């Protein structure tokens, strides 16, 4: 249970913040990479397929949070 709760978020952070943001920064610049990686992060969690507005709000807040954390890592 610990590996199911701890390992995926760590690997996700390494992949999204490290690899994806780094590769996007090479092509689009650092600020655009933060925004694009936040969108990729939000879409990867599947909030887009529901018709419930609360689920969309949660998805939007996860993209916003990912952008804030990405900006903090970048700074």
Description:
It is built from 3 helices and no strands. The termini are far apart. The protein has helices spanning 2-28, 30-43, 53-74. The chain has 75 residues and is mostly helical. Helix content is 84%, strand content 0%.
Classification by helices and strands: mainly alpha
Biggest beta-sheet profile? none
Number of extended strands: 0
Distance between the termini: 34 Å
* Poorly predicted residue ranges: none
The helix fraction, in percent, is over 70%
Instruction: Summarize the helix and strand pattern as letters.
Output: HHH
Count the DSSP helices: 3
Radius of gyration: 13 Å
Shape: globular
Strand proportion, as a percent range, falls in: under 5%
Average pLDDT number: 83
Please state the oligomeric state of the protein chains shown.
single chain
